[in-house]
UniProtKB/TrEMBL annotation:
GO molecular function: metal ion binding
Keyword line: Glycoprotein, Metal-binding, Signal
Domain Secretion system C-terminal sorting: 851-922
Signal recorded as keyword: yes
Pfam families registered for this protein in UniProt: Por_Secre_tail (PF18962)
This protein's name: Secretion system C-terminal sorting domain-containing protein
Signal peptide positions on this chain: 1-19
InterPro entries: Ig-like_fold, Pectin_lyas_fold, Pectin_lyase_fold/virulence, Polysaccharide_Lyase_1, Secre_tail
């Protein structure tokens, strides 16, 4: 692009031009939420209609004024809504300052006072915002203290990236106490029929020339979920037009990378290509990188410092487009200690007070009656599985989940009264809801309007109150709706929707600022039972509708399961990929066994609309799912075996809903409508069951309040008495698998788990974890370390090894007579100490030598005895990661390749001639 001009030929980073700290300003649209229009990393300056406006930043006084030659009477803000919104988020260059009525001629004066004496630079962005359908755009000139510096700069139009926007770059010298006046003026050689107005989107003082910098980084700047595979990632960028070499800097210290030169450890390469391979990246680190562009004559233009974090699953089992939500990882821990609506110790206080990442744990169980809606802050993990007893049940008001959040095992049963929804993800970005239960709502139970990169999985939505006095509709209106889903892109999978009259789901598409349909929804492996007059319907840009199981019930009156409503407004396509969906009739017959991909789907047109010119139901999916997709039949069984807030336990309500779905039955009818299964008030279903109020004594359970119980910290050699506010133990990642110690504990709590003493056997009834597999289920053990496991009918018997202490997991698989299978795991706690944290006995059984320690690639193991030895390497949580049998002796060592292991603490267990010994080593 030839839309960047500068007065001078080259910029040497050793000169004084960049001597003063940079000032970066984004001119923001007025009357909009700041987080919608503001570019992070820039000072916000909201522009209202005015003749002039002044702001002081870092002691520098800057005044923007309508020039005396302007045809327009004032300055104003302007914007291009599409550029501001997803997926572009070009917030810096999609709004800005302009002249109100300046299409004939415009002039803007920028007066800068308080600059230190010496050389300075000014970078300005000029991206016009009006539609090119209505007008063309003129050029501008830039003067400094009356001297022409840039002539004939063609402003860009509606560029959707900062890197594609036109910029002007000028340098100037400043004398002490001397203001600088920069004038932006319409260029008089512009076409007479063009708009001669000027747009200034933002500016930077004392930064390098953007036209000579590397641009368009990949991963994108500030990407918290960069795709990194096995620690490997290739950095990419677009070179400056004049560059012949690229100096690459990379590190985890912002200041070091910002100020690095070629003598720094951050300096990685000087190269001609525009990619750089990174290895051994770690998801807990923020990586900073910059690319300095080198011209043929040796001129170096220092690059921007970009940053990214490698992606990391929110938790094991997180899937879909919200799978990389970071939640409260690495932050503080807040306990909910009472059932109050608000105040210290309340859930509301825990999720709304303060900022920064946090994990919310529960030290109390019972019913919380909310007085008003709760909208949680960003970067929060809500761990409902940590509650004692039956867990917590929220009633009376809804809960909203914000961006970068993880919400698991939450139960909301709203109840009659105020017209409220239940659980919301509206407007979120990178969030996931898992294993939650929502019922008895008057407005829809769930909503995700305007959300991006989200997942709703393994959640049970049931008994939306049908004829319940919705405030926006006439008396008698039935509004028992499951949910309206929207997103770019949203994943909705392995959920159960039962006894809801409509919106099962409603695909409520969003229209962007240009009036174009934009939602992309991935709806798969859901089970929908006893839907009433509406199944899934609505308008959507692109929908994958795959392998869902729709089971008619007593109240079902609609034949199709997907109705795409093509509107007479909005640009773009409205389409659905429909495949593998099963429809079961009320008598148990299959109306569609999943092989007829035309049965059960329809589309409708608005009155007066013509047939679409595109294929409404194409034969290929629109986008990947980033999840395991089961057949509809297998999904039906899997969902009914594991759905809803089932930890600490599945309450009576959800047990009934699962049972009725399996049976094709109902228990209650609506008191207003008499419809079977579709209740109108919670009293129709017997009202609230008992949720006992149980309080955990944190002084005994988690003395230091870091989220890790005392028994867990003692088991793994951590400090149960850390100072107040010290979360170093809970935020450590000893095995460097990307999950903190706290997250490892939360995973334990999110898995069915049992405790057994050394030398004893625990027996587990597996039917409670496989409710959906009713036809002659057969159970097998598919994985176990550190013990033995057998199955007797439906009883799993686990016996740990006598020498083992700690946590381990057992995988079992259920297979039924139809060949459907599902694998789940069970957690087992053995003893009070993990193996290796303390010696198994006071006296070592035999001598073992392992070296080097710490180790990078190969670990050599020898023993005082000669013979075959079974060698097992376990991570910090007792899970086996390597097993070998070697012949060892005092003079012959076994060579173990441990290069593939992540950095962290490991335990080496050696068994030889009936003796056993365990030692600890560190992998670098």
């Amino acid at each position: 692009m030839k839309n960047r001009f500068t007065l001078f030929a080259m910029l040497l980073i050793s000169t004084g031009i960049l001597a003063q700290s940079p000032v970066k300003v984004d001119f923001d649209k007025d009357e909009r939420a700041l987080d919608e229009v503001h570019e992070p990393g820039y000072e916000s300056w909201v522009i209202t209609n005015c003749v002039d406006t002044t702001k002081v930043i870092n002691g520098i006084k800057i005044t923007m004024a309508n020039g005396k030659e302007s045809d327009g009477a004032s300055l104003k803000s302007h914007w291009h809504k599409v550029g501001i919104q997803a997926p572009y988020y070009a917030r810096l260059v999609s709004d800005g300052l302009t002249v109100n009525g300046g299409d004939m001629y415009a002039e803007i004066d920028m007066t800068i006072e308080g600059l230190a004496p010496g050389s300075h630079s000014l970078l300005t962005y000029h991206n016009t915002l009006d539609s090119p359908d209505d007008k063309t755009f003129g050029m501008i000139d830039v003067f400094v203290n009356g001297e022409l510096k840039v002539e004939g700069l063609m402003q860009s139009n509606r560029a959707l990236s900062t890197y594609d926007a036109a910029t002007a770059y000028v340098t100037f010298d400043v004398k002490e106490n001397e203001p600088v006046v920069v004038t932006f003026r319409s260029n008089e050689d512009s076409p007479s029929d063009a708009s001669w107005n000027i747009v200034i989107n933002g500016f930077c003082l004392d930064v390098p020339d953007a036209g000579k910098q590397a641009k368009s980084p990949f991963p994108a700047d500030r990407d918290l979920h960069a795709e990194v595979e096995n620690g490997n990632c290739t950095l990419k960028w677009t070179a400056a037009q004049s560059a012949v070499l690229h100096d690459v800097y990379l590190g985890t210290d912002l200041n070091l990378v910002t100020n690095a030169d070629k003598t720094s450890s951050c300096y990685k390469a000087s190269q001609t290509n525009t990619t750089f391979d990174c290895t051994n990246l770690y998801s807990m680190n923020t990586y900073y990188w910059r690319v300095d562009e080198v011209e043929e004559d040796g001129t170096v233009t220092k690059g921007e410092v970009w940053s990214f974090m490698p992606c990391q699953l929110a938790f094991p089992g997180a899937e879909g487009y919200g799978r990389y939500a970071r939640g409260g990882r690495g932050g503080k821990v807040v306990y909910v200690t009472n059932l109050n609506d608000a105040g210290p110790g309340s859930f509301r206080e825990a999720v709304t007070n303060g900022s920064g990442p946090r994990t919310v744990l529960f030290a109390v169980s019972g019913i919380v009656r909310l007085e008003s809606r709760i909208m949680s802050n960003e970067q929060i993990t809500i761990a409902g599985q940590t509650a004692p007893g039956k867990g917590v049940c929220f009633r009376a008001a809804p809960i909203g989940i914000n961006s970068e959040s993880v919400c698991r095992f939450l139960r909301i049963r709203l109840g009659g009264g105020t017209t409220y929804d239940g659980l919301g993800m509206a407007g979120t970005n990178h969030s996931i809801v898992d294993h939650c239960s929502v019922s008895w709502t008057i407005d829809e139970a769930f909503s995700s309007r305007g959300a991006k990169n989200l997942t709703l999985q393994r959640t049970l939505i049931s008994e939306a109150l049908n004829c319940a006095g919705h405030q926006n509709y006439p008396a008698g209106t039935e509004h028992g709706y499951a949910g309206t889903i929207s997103g770019q892109t949203g994943s909705f999978h392995h959920n159960l929707l039962a006894h809801c009259n409509g919106r099962n789901w409603s695909v409520g598409d969003a229209i962007d600022g240009s009036g174009t349909w934009v939602s992309k929804l991935d709806v798969f492996n859901n089970v929908v039972y006893n839907y009433g007059s509406r199944a899934t319907d609505g308008e959507v840009h692109k929908l994958n509708f795959v392998n869902n199981y729709y089971k008619k019930g007593a109240a079902t009156t609609v034949g199709h399961i997907l109705k795409l409503e093509i509107k007479g407004f909005g640009a773009g396509t409205e389409q659905a990929y429909y495949s593998g969906n099963i429809i079961e009739d009320k008598n148990g017959d299959l109306l569609n066994d999943g092989t007829d991909n035309q049965f059960g789907r329809i589309y409708t047109l608005d009155s007066g609309s013509s047939e679409p010119t595109y294929e409404v139901f194409p034969d290929e999916p629109f986008f990947p799912s980033y999840a395991t997709i089961h057949t509809a039949k297998d999904a039906y069984k899997s969902v009914l075996s594991d759905v809803g807030c089932n930890l600490p336990l599945l309450d009576e309500h959800d047990q009934r809903i699962v049972r009725e779905t399996l049976e094709g039955s109902y228990t209650y009818v609506g008191s207003e409508t008499g419809k079977k299964g579709l209740i109108d008030n919670e009293a129709d279903a017997g009202g609230y069951e008992n949720y006992p109020e149980i309080t955990i004594d944190l002084d005994e359970f988690d003395t230091d309040r870091d989220g890790l119980p005392n028994w867990w910290e003692e088991m793994f050699g951590l400090n149960p008495n850390s100072p107040e506010g010290d979360f170093s133990d809970s935020n450590a990642d000893d095995d460097r698998d990307g999950y903190t110690n706290l997250e490892e504990y939360l995973h334990w709590m999110a898995t069915p788990h049992y405790e057994v003493k050394t030398g004893e056997t625990v027996e587990i009834d597996l039917t409670k974890y496989t409710r959906g597999f009713e036809k002659n289920p057969v159970y097998t053990v598919t994985k176990i370390d550190n013990g033995t496991a057998t199955v007797d009918g439906n009883i799993l018997k686990i016996t740990p090894e006598e020498s083992f202490g700690g946590i381990f997991y057992v995988d079992f698989t259920v297979t039924d007579a139809e060949g459907s299978a599902c694998t789940r795991n069970i957690g087992v706690k053995v003893g009070d100490r993990a193996v290796g944290v303390e010696p198994v006995s006071d006296t070592r059984q035999f001598a073992v030598n392992a070296y080097p320690n710490p180790v990078t690639d190969y670990l050599y193991v020898s023993t005082e005895s000669t013979g075959d030895a079974k060698i097992q390497v376990m991570n910090a949580y007792g899970n086996s990661v390597l097993t070998e049998t070697c012949n060892v002796s005092p003079n012959v060592a076994c060579k173990l390749d441990v290069s593939f292991l992540p950095m962290g603490i490991y335990f080496l267990k050696i068994q030889q001639e009936g003796l056993s010994e365990t030692i600890k080593f560190i992998k670098k």
